[in-house]
Design brief:
Length: 202
């Protein structure tokens, strides 16, 4: 609904910001552009509000147990869940939620695939690509991007607790299943910090 606000502002401006209504206070050469200017301002405000809401939602999950969600891999015949997967692979985990149409999904997935193949992280970190549409889309995406298959790659629908507003959306989870970073993450920097702190705790 919020995304419709700029459009509503534009049409309201065309209807009410006429020469008869505001011609005395707005120059005629500006009047024609006023609805577009107001719509642009509304668009920026909506985006700012959405970003603030997303930040609040994502930060609220940090320190909490990673919420469960259905998860299906091509290599696993039965549909599983994230918790079930994690219980069998208890180690720091990077999850990347994405959809094929997003332009940023490719570079993010390629980076994850490269990290997963790095000897530095093998056997120490789970890297999971989660297509939010379908397993077919995940397979198509992997072929299009030339992914080497070093990551776990499947499909799933994360719950609202993750606060996903923009994709790709990455989540860093520690070996105890607690969220360390949610969306605002730097790779491999944040992952290296987590691994380093895990060594000190042992």
């Amino acid at each position: 609904m919020e995304r419709m606000m700029p459009l509503a502002v534009y049409f309201a401006g065309q209807k009410f910001l006429t020469k008869e209504n505001v011609g005395d206070i707005v120059p005629e050469n500006i009047l024609a552009y006023l609805p577009m200017i107001l719509a642009g301002i509304a668009y920026m405000l909506v985006n700012k509000m959405a970003s603030a809401q997303a930040a609040a939602a994502t930060e609220g999950l940090v320190g909490q147990e990673a919420p469960d969600f259905p998860l299906k891999f091509k290599e696993v015949t039965n549909t599983t869940t994230f918790k079930e997967f994690f219980s069998k692979n208890k180690m720091p985990t990077v999850v990347d939620f994405y959809q094929n149409f997003d332009l940023h999904a490719g570079p993010a997935a390629e980076q994850l695939d490269k990290l997963a193949a790095d000897e530095k992280y093998k056997g120490k970190v789970n890297f999971i690509l989660v297509n939010m549409s379908s397993l077919d889309d995940a397979e198509k995406f992997a072929k299009e991007k030339g992914l080497k298959g070093a990551t776990w790659h499947g499909t799933g629908q994360p719950g609202a607790q993750y606060g996903i507003k923009y994709i790709p959306h990455k989540v860093l989870i520690d070996g105890d299943g607690l969220v360390v970073k949610n969306f605002n993450m730097s790779l491999p920097g944040d992952l290296d910090v987590l691994l380093s702190s895990s060594k000190k705790d042992k």
